[in-house]
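Researcher: I'd like a structural prediction for the single chain below. Treat it as a standalone chain; there are no partners to consider.
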Amino acid sequence: MSDPAATLASLLRASTIQDHDEALKLANAAIRASRTNIDAHHTRVVALLKLDRFDDALRAIADGGHELESKCILEKAYALYKTGNLQEARDTAEKAPSTQSNTRPFRHLRAQIAYRAESFADAASLYRDLAAETPGLHGEENDVRINLLAANAQLEWAGLGQQLDDSERQPSRADLESFETAYNVACAHVARAELAKASIMLKRARDLCEASEDLSPDEKKAELLPIIVQHIYVLSQLGKESEATALQRLVVQSDIPEAPTRAVAHNNQIALAGTDGNPYFTQRISELAGKLSGNDKLFEYQQSVLRRNRYALDLQMQKFQGTESSTNTQILSASSPSALLNVAPLGVISAAARTEMASSKAAIRKILPVLEKRPNDVGLLLTIIQLYIQTQNPGPAVTLLEKFLKRLEAVTTADYSDVRFSPGLVAVAVALYRLQGRQNSVRAELARASAHWRSKPECASTSLLRAAGVELLHSSNPEDVAAAGATFEKLLTQPGQDITAAAGLVASFATRDFAKVEPYLSKLTPVERLTAGTDVQALIQVGVCQATAPTPTSRKRGADEAEKEKPTKRRRKQKLPKDYVEGKQPDSERWLPLRDRSTYRPKGKKGKKRAQEVTQGGVVKEEETLELVGGAGAVKVEKATAGKKKKKGKK
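Model: Treating it as a single chain, here is the predicted structure.
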């Protein structure tokens, strides 16, 4: 009978062996023959790793004893990485001797662990160093380039794209010749919201994959599905729903080998198909995707999107109390300063649940007491500010934001100061100040933010520094101009060539320190070229147009506005008399009382008598004055007229 150890040794000497099951059988036989055969134990561990039996590989390393574990540090770290134990895998790799840890395989593994642990800056740095060296194995250079592009794309997703050089953010010609690199370049475009470019790159990646001669039909199918799933998302974001739906028909979720890709494809299918406004049916379908575990978990930004989708469904199903309770628990558990911004979307969802999706003054009254209990809830704060703006009441919004910022300034921890001057909160403060016409407050806020980030080795946002420098440069205060120059100097230390920063630096120091701006003059367009074709005399004759300063908004109405808003009396429509005939001259005595008109004829005997008395040509009564007895005065009486005596009749 042949010696198992000798058979194993001869098998290992065969360089073309690919039958890992056969290697595992021979290694087990050699171990049964001699438990102290370290080479046999090592071979078994490698064979198990090749067969993707990572848990069995870890048990085999533990069974081999301390000697085997010290020899299989790389294999153990790799098995821990594949099973999702990232922290333990990182600790194992760091315990390796310097002679092993500085080797190319160890650095490659540390880069993979950092990438999966979402330490994308560390992963990109390690891959960048590996790419600069001579590759150790055939084809490794292409793998390192693919992984470096993937790490750069993840940095873009994390909002750290400013850490990359401009040369790394622009694809090279070599990146367009492989479907893997083209796909990663497309992902970087998606992260930067350059969806049109991403669609073109994904189309190219798909064409290159289909035309590849190195892949079998099954391998092509497995590689095409992630590209198609990503392209479906891009097309849906571009509003090309018909094209996205057509691509969705090509995706069979059961054929996707990777669990994370299946979860993303399932979410895309739900979003495209729709459920005719039935959130209960949508939730039922979403639960069929199952849960991911181990190394198949999605990245945090992917999980946050799916989590918000679930909460959105709960709100549509009017599960307000449960949604509020769940989001409150997660918000209160976020005690670290960095987590304040990560859970901000949950604060918005919690506010929506508490107000039952209302957006009025009553909604503000409901969630203001919650802000007192959770004063560090950024999402809730921004929701209240947005509601105030929607109700055209920016004053309380500014007050709330200033109180929140002062509370963060009172904490001396550096992490809280980073949150205080985070680009988003600074942008909100600047927008509110500009809405009220408070230009000095805008300049002061940007100056403080610039001073904070200039003291940091890395800036959170180059756009924030650029806006602060431009605003400070407009000031007539020499201190603000000096701060603008320091801001542009900080920008020029960042990777890439920022023409705006170079121009700002020249404008800041041109009259004070020419030696500092001289190296940047060659980067700027000459003045002669900028002013070529400009008629200076015509501009002088026309004059300078001055922009009107924004008027501050106030809740008090001016006199003119109050006069304009004063309700005018509604004029009653003129009524015409019943017997009105168009063209007929109206009666000139129509405004006199009836008894004063010339046409007045009283009725009855007494009336006729009175009429005769007042009628022109009637009998004029004669009056006489009689003296009263005793000198008591005089009185006028009607004079008696002589008339015929009436004959007495017979009695």
